[in-house]
């Protein structure tokens, strides 16, 4: 294990603890700021996610967005591969997917132009620490090579870190939305 891998492991461990504590005291309405942001992009193809474990839940914002345009959720195809996105709508039939996330039963895939990204930790420069599989980094790189793609990190405010151990392959977030605020990344 190299030094950066160990630093990332330690950063993830600390961030998971902060996220768990925030999740335990989260109030209803945590997705209100996300809904406000997405209202400015009505009709633009959007990818949300089905929350697992202690992730902040984007479902209320996804439900609102689905009334105005296509919404999808990520489907893991395999280790080392980019994500695919299956069309989702409120009340659609779901099945178990990899890592405990529910996915639509029908494989109606399309590519989003906005991706709501779950995360373990973020910083105010748009850095994101994920679970370590690189799925979102590969996917955002692929989507951004084709067209402008807005990556919105969605997290509890407690998941903020002062600085994160990042690599050149880590794709930056264009915006971070928490239950408390909307953050436009920039130098700190």
TrEMBL record:
Keyword annotations for this protein, in alphabetical order, are: ATP-binding, Ligase, Magnesium, Metal-binding, Nucleotide-binding
Give, as one word, the top-level EC class: ligase
Q: Which InterPro entries match?
A: FTHF_cligase, FTHF_cligase-like_sf, NagB/RpiA_transferase-like
The answer, when asked if Magnesium is one of the entry's keywords, is yes
Query: What does the entry give for GO biological process?
Result: folic acid-containing compound biosynthetic process; tetrahydrofolate interconversion
Query: Molecular function (GO) terms listed?
Result: 5-formyltetrahydrofolate cyclo-ligase activity; ATP binding; metal ion binding
Please state the span of the N-terminal signal peptide per the UniProt entry: none
Which reaction(s) does its UniProt entry say it catalyses? (6S)-5-formyl-5,6,7,8-tetrahydrofolate + ATP = (6R)-5,10-methenyltetrahydrofolate + ADP + phosphate
This entry's Enzyme Commission designation comes to 6.3.3.2
Q: What cofactor is this protein dependent on?
A: Mg(2+)
Entry similarity comment: Belongs to the 5-formyltetrahydrofolate cyclo-ligase family.
Q: What is this protein called?
A: 5-formyltetrahydrofolate cyclo-ligase
